[in-house]
Specification:
The chain is mostly beta strands and 595 residues long. It has 2 domains: 359 residues, Neuraminidase (6 Propeller); 165 residues, PEBP-like (Phosphatidylethanolamine-binding Protein). The strands form 11 sheets. The chain has a 6-stranded antiparallel sheet, covered by helices on one side. A hairpin with a 5-residue loop joins strand 30 and strand 31. The longest helix is centred in the last third of the chain and has 8 residues.
Length: 595
């Protein structure tokens, strides 16, 4: 197609998603949905402009900003990162490497690039001082950064991230707490995942150990970061496809530890997904009540990618603390959405007020009513002088957006740590007082103080062991099970299993019990959040070389049939709800070590 036929009208893109308007899907939605959804497939065609000035002139930014081509012919630049020394790097997923893009004379135009690391599927990149972290689909690497900007040998610190499926593009960042945060997208559009780590934000130590689920129900949060002044973690999540052109909004979430954000059963501002039902025993209404709604929404199917907070300097003062997000662009909306960079406007208190277009013009309408695009955007990063780098991974271009009047360099900001480490505690039997003198007897496939069989460990089959216990005192209405490891370094104790509202007539749990938040057999049994961040049993995995850890299997007989808690409750919530209701308790200690 001849390029000159394409540039007739710049398509206006809606700013914030209108929550009122045509709603899809339409019909009755619930356990047995009967809904009609109308979807679109509309893929704009790529357009190439060889002249840099002509290409930049087709793009629009707010008054006072200028757009220039910083580098081109880069094939597939995806995620961007600027090192402590001020160098710009880009990952290239399709090529499978990381490149250093060099502007030696500082004229705002790159002279060339060189490869500094290579692994298949390389995608996420983050710096922590002179250390760089890289992530592929399943693996996380770390390396030291040399004085010339090259990377030393890559050391693999994680090798078992969940498989990617539909969303294999892992990203990562180093948080204010010094820990690694890793985004693991869903394997599907909307489904029940087989890995509890899919559709989550994970957190691990810088050496890759102690990995846990920080937040869940996040379909594909590629772009996330911490507000430079408040330290609050924010992320843009991709909405579910095939719910209609005007559904689902792209979500701006305040991401907090232990919270779930709805996917796959609830989307947007609490709307139920007609396609999928929550696990047996949980209604859509319950799942919605257990989920956290987004703070803001943006045009459906715009496809948010990398996010970068601007720390101030080089941009106007009103942009200090704002976030910029690359919107890759839709393939399944009419009219198309995205193909732009948006600005999330945060007020002085660090609260987001709006999402608005910042860099536009990449989406072009043709004479015949079709659409073409100048770029599909993926990466954004702030330069040392405060300019904004923007990567187009389809045409292989990186743009530089600067402001004519702003002075100063981008401020070096260390956001405060808003996630303090958990306080040390005791095992549950030392925290809860039973009213009676009779102790429960607990039995399992190991003797008291004996070694727990390998198959129940995290590196074995990771299945729950079978348990039996003696009948509780007269008046027992339910039981609670808590399994604690007080020998763990953090959290202390590490909780491996929480089950509550176990019916009074149940005095045994079978081997390999499901890990869902609520079970149908035993009916009504709820499972709380373990220290891994999932529900149900998670097997022992103490550090290699540690003396055998002691695992306390603790049973409590209660005088109430229910604690009144939702499924997935945290340990502290369960212990607080138990207070004053415990008639009897008992425990069995098993041990486990890794050589």
């Amino acid at each position: 197609m001849h390029r000159s036929a394409l540039f007739l009208t710049i398509l206006p893109i809606a700013a914030t998603f209108p929550l009122a308007g045509v709603a899809q899907p339409q019909g009755s939605i619930g356990l047995y949905s009967d809904a009609t959804v109308q979807g679109s497939i509309l893929e704009p065609e790529p357009v190439t402009v060889e002249d840099d000035a002509e290409l930049a002139g087709l793009l629009s930014a707010p008054e006072g900003f200028s757009v220039e081509v910083f580098a081109r012919d880069l094939k597939n630049p995806r995620m961007l990162a600027v090192s402590q020394a001020g160098r710009l790097y880009a990952t290239r997923r399709d090529v499978g490497d990381v490149i250093l893009i060099e502007d030696a004379n500082g004229d705002g135009r790159a002279e060339g690039f060189r490869t500094v690391a290579s692994r298949p599927g390389m995608h996420g990149i983050a710096f922590d001082g002179e250390t760089v972290f890289l992530v592929t689909v399943n693996d996380v690497y770390r390396a030291e950064v040399a004085e010339d900007g090259s990377f030393g040998a890559l050391t693999r610190i994680i090798d078992d991230l969940p498989d990617g499926g539909q969303h294999p593009n892992r990203t990562l960042a180093v948080g204010p707490d010094g820990k690694l945060y890793i985004s693991a997208g869903s394997t599907c559009n909307a489904c029940a995942e087989t890995s509890v780590e899919s559709a989550t934000l994970l957190r691990a130590e810088p050496d890759g150990s102690s990995r846990s689920i920080f937040a869940s129900g996040l379909r594909n949060t590629i772009g996330f970061g911490w507000h430079p002044e408040t330290g609050v973690l924010w992320g843009m999540d991709h909405g579910i496809d095939w719910l209609g052109d005007e559904e689902q909004i792209e979500e701006l979430n305040r991401i907090e530890q232990g919270k779930s954000y709805g996917w796959p059963y609830v989307y947007g501002m609490g709307e139920p997904n007609p396609q999928d039902n929550p696990p047996a025993g949980i209604t859509l209404e319950q799942w919605a009540a257990m989920s956290t709604d987004p703070v803001l929404g943006y045009t459906p199917h715009a496809a948010p990618m990398q996010m970068a907070f601007h720390p101030g300097g080089g941009f106007p003062e009103e942009h200090r603390g704002d976030a910029f997000v690359a919107m890759r662009g839709s393939w399944n909306r009419r009219p198309p959405a995205g193909y732009e960079v948006v600005r999330i406007d945060f007020d002085d208190a660090g609260e987001p007020q709006s999402v608005e277009p910042f860099l536009t013009g990449f989406l072009q309408q043709q004479e015949d009513g079709g659409y073409g695009f100048l770029g599909r955007l993926a990466g954004v990063a702030v330069a040392p002088d405060g300019a904004l780098f923007v990567a187009d991974d389809t045409n292989g271009v990186i743009y530089r957006v600067s402001h004519s009047d702003a002075e100063g360099e981008a401020a070096a900001v260390s956001p405060p740590d808003t996630v303090p480490p958990p306080a040390e505690s005791q095992v549950a039997t030392e925290l809860v007082q039973a009213s009676g003198d009779t102790a429960l007897t607990v039995s399992a496939p190991f003797e008291a103080e004996g070694m727990i069989p390998e198959r129940f460990s995290a590196e074995g089959e990771n299945i729950a062991p079978p348990l039996e216990w003696s009948e509780g005192l007269e008046g027992t209405q339910s039981y609670v099970l808590i399994v604690d490891d007080p020998d763990a370094a953090r959290p202390k104790p590490f909780t491996h299993w929480i089950a509550y509202d176990i019916p009074a007539g149940v005095r045994a749990l079978r081997e390999g019990l499901p890990t869902g938040p609520q079970l149908t057999d035993p009916e009504g049994l709820k499972q709380g959040s373990n220290s891994r961040g999932a529900t149900g049993w998670t097997g022992p995995k103490p550090p290699v070389g540690d003396p055998a850890h002691a695992y306390h299997f603790q049973l409590f007989a209660l005088d109430t049939a229910s604690l009144g808690l939702d499924p997935g409750a945290a340990r502290d919530e369960v212990l607080a709800a138990m207070e004053g209701h415990v008639l009897a308790e008992g425990s069995l200690i098993g041990r486990f070590a890794r050589e």
